[in-house]
Write a structure and sequence with these properties.
Blueprint: H1 2-8, H2 11-16, E1 24-25, E2 28-29, E3 31-32, H3 43-56, H4 66-86, E4 94-97, H5 100-115, E5 121-125, H6 134-143, E6 146-150, H7 163-166, E7 171-177, H8 189-198, E8 202-206, H9 218-221, E9 225-229, E10 240-244, H10 246-249, E11 262-265, E12 270-272, H11 286-302, H12 304-323, E13 328-331, E14 340-345, H13 350-359, E15 362-363, E16 365-367, H14 372-378, E17 383-387, H15 394-411
Parallel strand pairs: 3-15, 5-6, 5-7, 7-8, 8-9
Antiparallel strand pairs: 1-2, 4-10, 9-10, 11-12, 13-14, 14-17, 16-17
The chain binds pyridoxal-5'-phosphate.
The site of pyridoxal-5'-phosphate has 13 residues, from helix 5.
Length: about 400
């Protein structure tokens, strides 16, 4: 079954669309396994960004002239592309930000201003990225509210049975990571949302590590908010998204003030623009948005279902191979996990592992992966992370296994 999906996916053809992959690093073919940090870009994305700077650039929403009108059209079309990609009800529910981090900060500020009072509670999980901890912690500090945490077990499984006891009549929001950037666990967000619904609690989904790996339908999920970053979905840096149900976004106050987010300004009073512009102060990254649209079109044309099946086959293949390596500890072993593998070789510091792998042309991440509570859970101060994408291959996984053997020979 896994082998079938591996053969059915034309990875060679996909790789041709990503020119950066075809290079040598340290005189070895590059094996790019740092996709959790950022993904590489297909030519269509890079060409769009270049075309903007060479031929199409003009600020949006401001000019009556041709270039401005075209750029405005592209920007609003990009919003529509995002809407369709996650199946939001309407494009007013799509806010462009600079990335998942700024999306979460915006929500923490605006939701906090309107809906959080002293004594209120917000629930996150123990496996959050710092971007989905610190903004809520800052909010709790400002408002004298409380942050509660759903724990996970040593396999990386979220202990959902603990959720009911964490919920109280003071719970206002659950903000949860969809796919863990360390453990690869794909959390049962639908179940969390169903529970939240019964208690009238809003749910925010951090989809920074999921939206590029599996199809997401926000209407079917019925989440209240969902965020992700462009650069992790094969798009440009500096562009991100908030999806929010209109009924919430209408009620939330703006985060930043400035041009474009206003209706009328006088020294006595300012009124705000309608959705989605209320949340997009100043010159936005309209070139990033155009590039993001190309990235999402690329994913849709390739087929998120196909990508998901292929990546699941890579995951099965890798986990089987890793099990055969003595002294290799892989963190996160929940079935259906994404192709994200954090590990430590017994007796070898993650930094040393990363440096040896780099000499072999393999790009992995080392450190805490912006998830220090996950490190604290396992009592380690860092891990190596190989995070794969649909342009990676089983041959590259084999090469990583050789690399791990090489590390063991050098250090043990
Ligand atoms: N959430 C998760 C799960 C992530 O993995 C990351 C980045 O690694 C972020 C949020 C923050 O994304 P960005 O740095 O693009 O804002």
């Amino acid at each position: 079954m896994a082998a079938n999906h591996l053969n059915m996916f034309d990875v060679k053809k996909i790789r041709d669309d990503f020119p950066i992959l075809n290079q040598q690093v340290n005189k070895k073919p590059l094996v790019y396994f740092d996709n959790g940090a950022t993904t590489q870009k297909p030519s269509s994305v890079a060409n769009e960004v270049l075309a903007y700077y060479l031929n199409k650039n003009s600020n949006i929403h401001r000019g009556v002239h041709y270039l401005s009108a075209q750029a405005t059209l592209d920007y609003e079309n990009a919003r529509e592309t995002v809407r369709s990609f996650i199946n939001a009800k309407n494009s007013d529910e799509i806010i462009f930000t600079s990335g998942a981090t700024s999306s979460l900060n915006l929500l923490a500020f605006s939701f906090g201003e309107k809906f959080i009072s002293p004594g209120d509670e917000i629930i996150v999980t123990e496996m959050e990225h710092h971007a989905n901890i610190v903004p809520w912690q800052m909010l709790c500090g400002r408002k004298n509210a409380k942050l509660k945490v759903i724990p996970f077990d040593n396999n990386g499984l979220l202990l959902l049975e603990r959720l009911p006891e964490l919920i109280s009549e003071k719970t206002r929001l659950i903000s949860v990571i969809h796919t863990s950037n360390v453990l690869g666990t794909v959390n049962p967000i639908k179940e969390i949302i169903n529970t939240a619904r019964r208690h009238n609690i809003a749910v925010c989904v951090d989809a920074a590590q999921s939206v590029q790996h599996l199809p997401i339908d926000v209407q079917e999920l019925d989440c209240d908010f969902l965020v992700f970053s462009g650069h992790k979905v094969y798009g440009p840096t500096g562009i991100g998204v908030i999806y929010g149900k209109e009924k919430w976004l209408e009620q939330l106050p703006p985060w930043q003030g400035g041009g474009d987010m206003v209706d009328e300004v006088s020294f006595d009073k300012t009124t705000y623009n309608q959705l989605p512009f209320k949340f997009e102060a100043g010159t936005t990254n309209y070139i990033g948005a155009a590039g993001l649209a190309k990235a999402l079109e690329y994913l849709s044309n390739t087929g998120l279902d196909k990508i998901h099946r292929y990546e699941q086959s890579l995951t099965e293949y890798a986990m089987k191979k890793f099990k055969e390596i003595d002294g290799l500890n892989v963190f996160g072993n929940v079935s259906g996990k994404a192709c994200i593998f954090s590990f430590i070789i017994d007796g070898v510091h993650p930094l040393d592992t990363g440096m040896v792998l780099d000499k072999m042309g393999i790009a992995v991440r080392t450190g805490t992966h912006c998830a220090q509570p996950v490190m604290q859970h396992f009592g380690v101060d860092g891990m190596v992370r190989a995070s794969l994408a649909f342009y990676n291959t089983t041959e590259e996984i084999d090469y990583l296994c050789q690399g791990i053997d090489q590390v063991k020979k050098m250090f043990l």
